[in-house]
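Researcher: Next sequence.
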Amino acid sequence: MHGIVFSQLRKYVETKHGRHAWNTLLKHATIENRAYLSVSEYPDTEMEALVSAAAMMSRQRATVVLGAFGVFIALPLMNMYGHLIPEEWKTLDVIRKDRGNHPQRGPSANPRRKTSCTAQHSPERR
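Model: Next structure:
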C-alpha cells in the first residue's frame, strides 16, 4: 500500500484523538517504532492491523473506521491527484473507471505486496 495512505491515516488519528494517539495505535497494532514515508510502499497487512487496532480502540466496526477515514483522506488525495482525472468525471465515474484501469495494480506489479485489496473513496468534484 502506498505510504501516502499511512501518512494520511496518521494525520486522521492525530486530528481525531490527539498527538499521542498514533503511537498508541502502533502499539495496539503490534508495529511499534514504525515510520511511514509518503513516497514508499508498505505491506497491506500493516494497514489491516492499524485499522483493526483503531476499530478495537474506538469500539467501532472496521468498516465504520474505514468510512470515516475515507471521508478524511478524499480531499487531500483529490488535491494531490485530481489533475489526473478528466474534468467531466463525477464521483461515481472515478470509482467505476478506476477499478479496471490500473494494469500495474495487484500482486504481480509489486512482489513485496502482501494482498491485493484496494479501496476507492473520492469526494464529489462539483
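Model: The CA atoms of residues 44 and 117 lie 8 Å apart. Residues 3-73 form a domain with the H-NOX domain fold (CATH 3.90.1520.10).
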